[in-house]
Every structure is written in C-alpha cells, then in structure tokens.
C-alpha cells in the first residue's frame, strides 16, 4: 500500500464506496486531493478533508439510486392492501383525518419500518385476504409486524371488547400486567399513564375527569 502525502490517508484506503488510488497536491487550492475509484467504476478527485469527514463517500451513484427508488411507484398502488397501508398512516399521522384523535392523537403510531415503505409492510403482512382487515392485537400498542394481523370483523369486535371491557371501568383497561388510563377531551384521547394496580388506575381516572371535565361532570366512584 503506497503512502500519500495527505494526512492519515493512504493509497488503498476505503471511504464508503470510494477506494483511494493516488494523491496529488492541488496548488490552486492549497489542498491535497485523491483520485478515488467508486464501487460503480467511476474515478473522481476528492479532497482529503471530505474523505476524512465522510462528506464524500461515492461519486453520486448511491444518492441517485435512492432518489430513483423514492420516486418509483410500487406495483401495489391502487390495490386494497395498499389502501389499507395508506389508511393506517393517515390515522396515525394526518391530523385532518377523522380517526386521528383515536389513533395518532392517542399515541398510536406506525413503526419506522412501515412508515415510509409500503414494500416492507407488504413483505411482513402479505396481501390482505378477502373479508379481512388490519387489526392491532394489543390496542394500546402501535402498528408493527409483531402487533398486527389480518382479522375478520368479528375477531376485531371481540378483540376490542376484551381490551376495553376487561376492567369494567370506563377509560381503564389492562395493559400487560399493568392498567392503562386514558380520557377523551375536546374530541381527543389523552393518555394519562400506566399503573400497577386497578385502584391506582381508578383514582388516576377520577382525577383526570375532574381536571378535564370539572368536578360536576366527573363520574362518581363505583
């Protein structure tokens, strides 16, 4: 491996997609430059400082490929599964969506893998079977592979009933081995917290009712 005259950079060193071929001093700029071969085959002169800082790691082929991918319309556009994916994102991210208060406004989100990549969603879930819709297994958690399934309307209704009616107290439901408390105010669901016992959760719910609804509108303890 030949040594270049640029600080800490030698011929053959690799920076991202670049491999250093040789070095030369550019008198006009008073800086060392390096002839680098990109993994795509293009040879380009790059300042040593740009290589060391990571500002330049390819001839531009990687960036152009990413831009091209982002502009490519997926073959699933227009299918029912694609519309379900879009609806899921709208509920969680679009504040103008009618369902947003019960989803994004209540802290329900979409995992990073699915948020901007329909192909990832499709790879994990597959095509939606006829008669089924997307269901979150644990309603307190967001959309991700581990918490989603294709389910019938009956399965979804049973799941909602199990989630929402398990404690018998409005706004309080089981969440693993804890109890989650929420309250609606100004058409938005507000997350209050997780509590170790049902009694603690009920007290927190009553306190939230007084805070958001006023003492006259708070429900009487059961």
TrEMBL record:
It comes from the Bacteria. Keywords: DNA-binding, Transcription, Transcription regulation. GO terms for molecular function: DNA binding; DNA-binding transcription factor activity. Residues 165-222 form the AP2/ERF domain. SUPFAM superfamilies: DNA-binding domain. This is AP2/ERF domain-containing protein.
């Amino acid at each position: 491996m030949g040594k270049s005259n640029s600080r800490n950079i030698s011929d053959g060193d690799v920076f991202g997609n670049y491999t250093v071929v040789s070095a030369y001093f550019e008198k006009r700029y008073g800086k060392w430059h390096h002839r680098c071969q990109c993994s795509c085959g293009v040879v380009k002169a790059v300042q040593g400082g740009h290589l060391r800082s990571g500002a330049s790691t390819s001839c531009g082929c990687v960036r152009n490929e990413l831009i091209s991918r982002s502009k490519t319309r997926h073959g699933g556009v227009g299918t029912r599964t694609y519309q379900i994916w879009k609806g899921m994102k709208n509920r969680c991210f679009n504040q103008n969506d009618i369902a947003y208060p019960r989803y994004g406004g209540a802290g329900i989100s979409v995992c990073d893998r699915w948020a901007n990549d329909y192909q990832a969603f499709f790879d994990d879930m597959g095509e939606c079977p006829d008669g089924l819709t997307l269901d979150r297994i644990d309603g307190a958690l967001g959309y991700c592979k581990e918490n989603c399934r294709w389910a019938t309307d009956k399965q979804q209704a049973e799941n909602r009933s199990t989630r929402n009616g398990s404690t018998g107290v409005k706004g309080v439901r089981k969440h693993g081995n804890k109890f989650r408390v929420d309250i609606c105010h100004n058409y938005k669901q507000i997350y209050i917290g997780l509590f170790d016992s049902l009694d603690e959760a009920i007290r927190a719910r009553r306190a939230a009712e007084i805070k958001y609804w006023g003492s006259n509108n708070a429900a009487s303890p059961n």
